[in-house]
């Protein structure tokens, strides 16, 4: 059973507009959520995270929103730039000594000039 | 420069021929992990290690072995590779596993093809 779901395999956005990437989870024990960005031929790199005690975390053009009641989080990129074109992975963790990151399948974002 | 180094970047082999993919990190991280990425399946964890001589299975450990004799190295061993192990492999590390939200640092990946 997939605990972290990214239901949109791809997303295309015009440069300068907002990109919204969505992620749903099923495990209510998850208490930390992270977004990773991956370019072709490179490993994923950490982008932004949010603790379950918050509902929003912002870092420059990137904002992550968490809705615990809906078990849903989203990553907003404003304004989108062509260099943002990449695969974005949502990941969740229960923390603790047994916790490991569970990744979604990823969403490929294409930002068109 | 802080990094996770995997070798080789590309590897083509034949069924049954033992191979090792090396992984090394220079950040003194305790936690290391191996993932495979397959189309439509995302990143799936193979094995992880909480510290030297401490390893455990992830979600898809069948057909793989690991060892953690030194803190910096975490090799992935395929004793008898099969075509279904053709995949893109990533090694990752983090400072401490268990600390909430501790972010992973990934290597650049190893593209393995088993014929």
Provide a compact summary of the structure.
The complex is a heterodimer of chains A (113) and B (115). With 113 residues, chain A is mostly beta strands. Chain A has strands spanning 4-5, 10-14, 19-25, 32-38, 45-51, 56-59, 62-67, 72-77, 86-93, 102-103, 107-112.
Task: Provide an overview of this structure.
The complex is a heterodimer of chains A (113) and B (115). Chain A has 113 residues and is an all-beta fold. Chain A contains no helices and eleven strands. Chain B has strands spanning 4-7, 10-13, 19-25, 31-38, 42-51, 54-57, 65-66, 76-78, 87-94, 105-106, 110-114. Chain B has 115 residues and is mainly β. Helix content of chain B is 0%, strand content 50%. Chain B is built from no helices and eleven strands. The A-B interface holds A 6, 9, 31-32, 34, 36, 41-46, 49, 51, 89, 93, 95-101, 103-106 and B 4, 33, 35, 40-45, 48, 50, 58, 90, 92, 97-101, 103-109.
Return the string of H and E elements of chain B.
Answer: EEEEEEEEEEE
Largest interface: A-B, 27 and 26 residues
- How large is the radius of gyration of chain A? 14 Å
Question: How would you sum up the global shape of chain B?
Answer: globular
User: What percentage of amino acids of chain A are in beta strands?
Assistant: over 45%
Separation, N- and C-terminal Cα atoms of chain A: 38 Å
Total helix count of chain B? 0
Major sheet of chain B: 7 strands, mixed
**How many helical elements of chain A?**
0
Roughly how many Å is the radius of gyration of chain B?
13 Å
Number of strands of chain B: 11
Strand and helix order of chain A? EEEEEEEEEEE
Oligomer: heterodimer
Query: Percent helix among the residues of chain A?
Result: under 10%
Biggest sheet of chain A, open or closed, and with what strands and sense?
6 strands, mixed
Q: Poorly predicted ranges of chain A (pLDDT <50, ≥5 residues)?
A: none
Structural class of chain B: mainly beta
Beta-strand residue percentage of chain B: over 45%
Mean pLDDT of chain B: 92
Give the end-to-end Cα distance of chain B, rounded to a whole number of Å: 36 Å
């Amino acid at each position: 059973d997939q605990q972290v779901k990214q239901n949109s395999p791809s997303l295309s956005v015009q440069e300068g507009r907002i990109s919204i990437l969505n992620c749903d989870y099923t495990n209510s024990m998850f208490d930390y959520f992270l977004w990773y960005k991956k370019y072709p031929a490179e490993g994923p790199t950490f982008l932004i995270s949010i603790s379950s005690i918050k509902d929003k975390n912002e870092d420059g053009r990137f904002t992550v929103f968490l809705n615990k009641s809906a078990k849903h989080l989203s990553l907003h990129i404003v304004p989108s730039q062509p260099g943002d074109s990449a695969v974005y992975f949502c990941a969740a963790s229960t923390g603790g000594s047994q916790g490991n990151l569970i990744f979604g399948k990823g969403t490929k974002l294409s930002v068109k000039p | 420069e802080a990094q996770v180094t995997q070798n080789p970047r590309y590897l083509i082999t034949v069924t049954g021929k033992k191979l090792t993919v090396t992984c090394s990190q220079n950040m003194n991280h305790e936690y290391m992990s191996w993932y495979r990425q397959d189309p439509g399946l995302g990143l799936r964890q193979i094995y992880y290690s909480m510290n030297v001589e401490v390893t455990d299975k992830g979600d898809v450990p069948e057909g793989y072995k690991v060892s953690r004799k030194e803190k910096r190295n975490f090799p992935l061993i395929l004793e008898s590779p099969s075509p279904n192990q053709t995949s893109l492999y990533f090694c990752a590390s983090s400072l401490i596993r268990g600390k909430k939200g501790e972010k992973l640092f990934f290597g650049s990946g190893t593209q393995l093809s088993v014929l």
